[in-house]
Amino acid sequence: MKLVLFDIDGTLVNSQHEIVEAMNLGLRDAGLPEMSPQEILSIVGLSLPVAVATLLPHADPVLHDRVVQGYRDAFVTSRAAGQVPPLYPGALDCLDALAAQKDVVLGIATGKPMRGLLAILQAHGLSDRFVTRQSADGHPSKPHPAMLQTALAETGIPAARAVMIGDTTFDIDMARAAGMTGFGVDWGYHPTPALHGAGAALVAMDYPALTGALLDWIMTEQMA
């Protein structure tokens, strides 16, 4: 068996707009100036408290907590209004192609809380697609490998037969720390040169390219 793990934000779903809006709402609620999309998107993938502390390294913990709460409140309001980020073009086709491989198990490793992850999966009809689902709940933030180590333990698949797919250097660093292959994607929140620099085995330019690379990787593992 092979394990293919996906990040969510910036990899499966295009959540750029809602992340920027939610973070700037949290900043405003805390009496702080807004930040540029580039600043905010640079920390996507980290668990929320770590992300806020990274954006505001000189602020005190009380201020961090206010921003975190404002961010969370914005997401609760957004989900209550039925707003869900869209899948990237080709994402569903990729998942379908992988599901057709009888010896492939799919999983998720995301810095989102489990509640947010489940809401997105349900909204897109993907709740039953992923055998293992790892979130920020109960794990250290990426790039710590705990999420991936738990996914490996749950599925019984060794790291040598697993691949992590993500759009940030946090995903690639996490994969390397867990001893597994890391594939980057070009359409997310960290630039391609940074993904290569972090050690990505490849960086796909679009979902058809990623699907082809994954099927090639699966075939190579079958022949090993």
Write the layout of secondary structure elements.
Layout (H helix, E strand, L loop, with lengths): L1 E5 L9 H14 L7 H5 L6 H8 L5 H20 L10 H9 L4 E6 L4 H10 L8 E3 L11 H10 L6 E5 L2 H10 L2 E5 L6 H7 L3 E3 L2 H17 L1
Parallel strand pairs: 1-2, 1-4, 2-3, 4-5, 5-6
Helix pairs in contact: 1-4, 3-4, 5-10
Shape-level CATH architecture of the largest domain: 3-Layer(aba) Sandwich
Instruction: Give the biggest sheet.
Output: 6 strands, parallel
Q: Which strand-content bin applies to the residues?
A: 5-15%
CATH topology of the largest domain: Rossmann fold
Helix fraction?
Answer: 40-55%
* Net shape: globular
Class computed from helices, strands and strand pairing: alpha/beta
Rounded radius of gyration (Å): 17 Å
Assign the CATH class of the largest domain: Alpha Beta
